Amino acid sequence: MKKLIFALIAGTAAMTAAQAQTATPRAYVGVGVATAESKFSVPGASNQSDPGYKASGKIFGGYEFDQMWGAEVGYTDFRNNSANYNIGSTAGNISSEGHSWYLAGKATMPINEQFAGFAKLGVVRNSIDISSTTAGLSRSDSNTGAYGALGVEYKFNQNVSLTAEYERYGKSRDQGVKPDVWTVAAKYSF
Question: Residue 8 pLDDT > 50, yes or no?
Answer without folding.
Answer: no
